[in-house]
């Protein structure tokens, strides 16, 4: 083949060899349907915006003090930020193993970090030598960095006189596979395969995790160590909890600590009516003593809210005893927001994939758990920002669809910011759509409220029935593979 000239440059050689000798930089741009090389990649693409956002959150704003006097030995080629960002990207993109983390570091690339020629075993050893303190500091750094953004879009109109609103609940984590020597001979349903339980607080206004306790005992009651989860919260906070935390000592302790609480009423709970604000058929708003008998009774008086809707009786208890501060409809709508922590647990397990553990090594399992919580903080913050920018209710924005769009972000975005691009394609991609959440309906009251007399007692001597709880005969004895600690 003789000398040949094309539009993109000059070529010469034979049929076996083509050598590029010159490339003209002043040529017109190639059409949009032509495949582009890496040099034409959009530096402001959505996928790079997402990676850059994660990288800015995990990298320390100030250089560590150890950088001034470098310790002995060769500096690590693979930094902890590089490794953590690779794990976060693997979780976000729905990858299924630590081998995918290795491929990101050595093949696909992670942010502005260079490609490294590490082996798969070297990456695993590096993960095993990474302390959980690194991940814990990273989670705290991300949560602190997102505080200003989430506070700007917080739902402050939700009971504004309360300082904070938290949902309290716990969940059991799924089991690991039997791939290590210490669990290889365990039965499929062995409790040693279960990772543990999470007891957590979720900020309803800011849509952020604020307190997480990891518990090794998967059979323990919800009320075990619950005071450690709540202790240290700002006074005047409101806690929303389900029936697993229903307890007279627990209610009294919360009131003594200066917290407000709202709970459902457990069946067959005895009470004594002190004052009736309003009663209309099955609708009742009254002040009561919990525990009508001397053997078991609550110290502080509480408020009972009761109404019927579609044949179902709803009963709520709270220590907010003034109807003008919390109406019946507000109490019903507010308690419905407790479901948001259940959806947040679902996002951790299904959307961020911690129902399938990448390893059965305890350290690697906990590292994946930390990474999932870091991504969850970012995902919930972006969820609230999209809803605020679109001027729609929070749950008109689909959190699973948002995670899918972030995982499959295009490499070309026309230079648009991430939020603006999500708003532009939100309705077309199913990100913004009408929510199917059912709003609780409280019957209209035809009678006026009767105020409580000023001399009505507010406290009495408590007496708690310390029942002897016998262990379940079918509960197996086991030695946990994990340990109890505070995640955040």
Structural class: alpha+beta
**Spatial strand sequence of the major β-sheet:** 9-10-11-12-8-7-4-5-6-13
CATH topology of one domain: Transposase Inhibitor Protein From Tn5, Chain A, domain 1
Q: Outline, from the CA principal axes?
A: globular
Rounded mean pLDDT is: 85
CATH 2nd-level architecture of one domain: Alpha-Beta Complex
If helices are DSSP runs of H or I spanning 4 or more residues, what is the number of helices? Answer: 13
N-to-C order of helices and strands:
EEEHHHHHHEEEHEHEEEEEHHHHHE
Radius of gyration based on Cα positions: 28 Å
Q: What fraction of residues sit in β-strands?
A: 15-25%
Q: What is the C-level CATH assignment of one domain? A: Alpha Beta
Helix content range: 25-40%
Low-confidence stretches: 1-43
Largest sheet: 10 strands, mixed
Rounded to the nearest angstrom, the distance between the terminal CA atoms is 69 Å
Pfam family, one: DDE_Tnp_1
Protein name: Transposase IS4-like domain-containing protein
GO molecular function, one term: transposase activity
Family: Belongs to the transposase 11 family.
Which features does this protein show?
488 residues; ten-stranded mixed sheet; RNaseH-like_sf
Write the layout of secondary structure elements.
Elements: E1 4-6, E2 9-14, E3 17-22, H1 46-58, H2 80-92, H3 98-108, H4 120-128, H5 132-145, H6 147-152, E4 165-172, E5 197-203, E6 208-215, H7 226-230, E7 238-241, H8 248-256, E8 260-264, E9 271-280, E10 283-290, E11 302-309, E12 312-318, H9 328-336, H10 339-351, H11 362-390, H12 399-407, H13 418-425, E13 485-486
Parallel strand pairs: 4-7, 7-8
Antiparallel strand pairs: 1-2, 2-3, 4-5, 5-6, 6-13, 8-12, 9-10, 10-11, 11-12
Helix pairs in contact: 1-2, 2-3, 2-11, 5-11
GO molecular function: DNA binding; transposase activity
Domain Transposase IS4-like: 225-374
Pfam family, one: DDE_Tnp_1
